[in-house]
Amino acid sequence: MGKVVDMNSDMGESFGAYTLGNDQELMAYISSANVACGFHAGDPKTMRETVKHALESGVGIGAHPGLQDLIGFGRRPMEITPEEGYDLVLYQIGALLGMTKAEGGTLHHVKPHGALYNMAAKNKELAMAIAKAVYHLDSTLVLYGLAGSALIDAGNEVGLQTASEVFADRTYQADGSLTSRRSPDALIHDPEQASKQVLRMVKEGKVMTQQGEDIDIVADTICIHGDGAHALAFAKDIHAKMTASGITVQRIKA
Amino acid sequence: MGKVVDMNSDMGESFGAYTLGNDQELMAYISSANVACGFHAGDPKTMRETVKHALESGVGIGAHPGLQDLIGFGRRPMEITPEEGYDLVLYQIGALLGMTKAEGGTLHHVKPHGALYNMAAKNKELAMAIAKAVYHLDSTLVLYGLAGSALIDAGNEVGLQTASEVFADRTYQADGSLTSRRSPDALIHDPEQASKQVLRMVKEGKVMTQQGEDIDIVADTICIHGDGAHALAFAKDIHAKMTASGITVQRIKA
Amino acid sequence: MGKVVDMNSDMGESFGAYTLGNDQELMAYISSANVACGFHAGDPKTMRETVKHALESGVGIGAHPGLQDLIGFGRRPMEITPEEGYDLVLYQIGALLGMTKAEGGTLHHVKPHGALYNMAAKNKELAMAIAKAVYHLDSTLVLYGLAGSALIDAGNEVGLQTASEVFADRTYQADGSLTSRRSPDALIHDPEQASKQVLRMVKEGKVMTQQGEDIDIVADTICIHGDGAHALAFAKDIHAKMTASGITVQRIKA
Amino acid sequence: MGKVVDMNSDMGESFGAYTLGNDQELMAYISSANVACGFHAGDPKTMRETVKHALESGVGIGAHPGLQDLIGFGRRPMEITPEEGYDLVLYQIGALLGMTKAEGGTLHHVKPHGALYNMAAKNKELAMAIAKAVYHLDSTLVLYGLAGSALIDAGNEVGLQTASEVFADRTYQADGSLTSRRSPDALIHDPEQASKQVLRMVKEGKVMTQQGEDIDIVADTICIHGDGAHALAFAKDIHAKMTASGITVQRIKA
């Protein structure tokens, strides 16, 4: 059987009168949608409509829970206890589960958002709390996390299927972590270089770090940004290159 | 088989540093708990803990969705479309469903809160939207509403089991509606009179209106207030009187 | 002295990651900016930056308080008491007053937003509560309200300077009220007809109602929509036509 | 002239249906009230009523701005930029300034709340941003902060009058900082020992650290907790002991 990879994108981040992203167009090029659940973005109407579009497009539906910080879009780290992490993740997944059931679909995965994603990549206790919340709610859900992170470890430990996520346009450090956004080298601005990096990660399981050495990396799913002028073109390009390389783009098998 | 009645109470209305109600003590005298879902009251931690206590007490767990108005405790009517009602109810029930599943329990019922309850008692379109949200999410849930209200009609119409709710300490009008709180006669202040009224509603299916005539009323479930100095004593008393009259207090059979 | 008129627009309605409106471009064509204060739209950063831009543009700064309903953008009527209206208006004006003082400016006016504006146009008690809140905070502020509304009456009664607002693209009823948005005739879609109507209101103090009769109308200030594809072009056009007719566009003299 | 000290307490922390604290009773024993401004606690009605009570009691009115985290009561540290700190403090002080002006009073001071207070005690840039926000809004306001903290330094640097705050029931480290709440020695549980410590800080400007050495400490104002069963008795006791020692309890002279 040939190689497969998942392409996921954050969706449903509009809120009331505010519109964000190109959800509808992007659906054609991804296999999994991470739907905002109301804490960092997403109102009930947006959530339901996004679930509906994802079902119509045959895209896997995932909960995308975040910190309760609408002004900061869930991007500002906050000191929460593991128990608080457990509860806020459970609440948000449940809300999206309700939407998905009502629309006749099945929830497929969970990917924490923004600061919560980053905190769970390093904080083992928080990662375990999140993994347990997912497992207790529905043990067949797939947990998405940064490749090589504490969240992936935690998911595996509690018995969840996990999906290791890689980034086309971010550079990597020798320990497999992403270069901090505070560093000038954090981003790959050249689309060609970005698609080359991600193709290699998927095909060979390797990435060249900022330190100039190859490391192993698990690339189950590729993060596709939904925002910005070039998001759509980039998604289309990655999708085409994967297909051209004999790699099937499909959601993670739960 | 003897007569049965359900006794329900609003619970889980604490929020963060703020504590409200006597949930723990009250659990012994009721058969169904309506758990606030975060919009008018209730934070994720409070919700999960309330679900846990209800399970330990063998009390039926219900979602208690409200308008998104924490300052007004969901008591201020707001002009929402039926679609907005559908979405906000779905979101909140889902959130509590997640909590309940994670704790190993089963969601039993849904009772709208405050202004949403009152609006759905009279507004047929909103009532239908709420009933559909409940049905689409889980058609085995019981829908609680004011006896004789549009919400009960809507629930029956979409195919849900419904529970007609009566109040011990509220007076009734000739058309079966509650006397408006703006009227000086809205409340029955004498506990004896209140328990007599509710006992008669359950045993005989009759209530004497403010206009001095008896009308028929369906009394599947009694609303027990959780707040206030005498709430606990009153719940205990009603429970004892029901039992003494050969009426079994038990949750609505779904 | 020649005729003068104020042109006002709602501004600062962005929120966190969400951008709304064309504030910067529009500033050149208006004389007064109504700045959202955080309840229906507007975060502290957006508020401060909008105040700064208004000061740089020589535009009068007004508070634009709304109902606490971010999801509904403050457009859904809500049953609040006059006292609640007083308090929420006071809170929001104060917040913007702080921003304005810190930026070295002076607050010029107050215009309620959306549902609050409409409710205060008809509900005399709420209108008085809002007028008193403005007066108690700073009796030199100008109160903006719908021409002929209860809010204008209330402002005059408490001793505030008021500014009667007219709309270019809305049709009027015989009693001077706006045609309800639920009616198909609510809006004037032809820009030429809209600018003719508003020019006549300013120059002659007359408007032709949907019932086909002329009525008197006070036109101190024109509402300029900030949103939508044609907002900027329309504002520019109205401004040019006013100037060409010898009418000076300038903020209300407080 | 004899020694003076200020006694301050957090107030106005109720929210909607939720009541917290013993504000009314406590007013008799303090000289300054820090009024919550809506982000971590306090709704507009509570704010206005607290301001009114403070004015009636002759107590100095201070803004008590916090992080926007109602569920966490503003106690969870959050990574905010200095600019975000500037804006959120400005917004909240302005809101309370509006309330105070409308009630005919004058705003006296600003004391950040909870996590914001602690963050500003150590983070020099955030401290400067807060101090500037206060200064830009009204340069006559007194800035309250932990004795010896970065916030007091920042206040002095921008030209504000500052008030160094001490705690009766917290233990101190050799560098003048408070013992972390995570340490078992953080709190002084014996009321006698607590009042002795605070009396000595005020009279002698000395405190014995956990390391067993005396250090100098500036004690302009004493933090009086408003919550808990013994808060009122403790406030009364401290007030009586100060007076008995010839120390006048009065607000900081602005």
TrEMBL record, chains A, B, C, D:
Pfam families per the UniProt record, alphabetical: LamB_YcsF
Enzyme class, first EC level, given as a word: hydrolase
Keyword Nucleotide-binding: yes
Domain of life: Bacteria
Catalytic activity from the UniProt record: 5-oxo-L-proline + ATP + 2 H2O = L-glutamate + ADP + phosphate + H(+)
EC number: 3.5.2.9
Keyword field: ATP-binding, Hydrolase, Nucleotide-binding
SUPFAM superfamilies per record: Glycoside hydrolase/deacetylase (SSF88713)
Entry annotated with the keyword Membrane: no
Subunit description: Forms a complex composed of PxpA, PxpB and PxpC.
PANTHER family the record matches: 5-OXOPROLINASE SUBUNIT A (PTHR30292:SF0), UNCHARACTERIZED PROTEIN YBGL-RELATED (PTHR30292)
Function: Catalyzes the cleavage of 5-oxoproline to form L-glutamate coupled to the hydrolysis of ATP to ADP and inorganic phosphate.
UniProt family annotation: Belongs to the LamB/PxpA family.
Protein name: 5-oxoprolinase subunit A
Species annotation: Shouchella miscanthi
Gene, per the UniProt record: pxpA
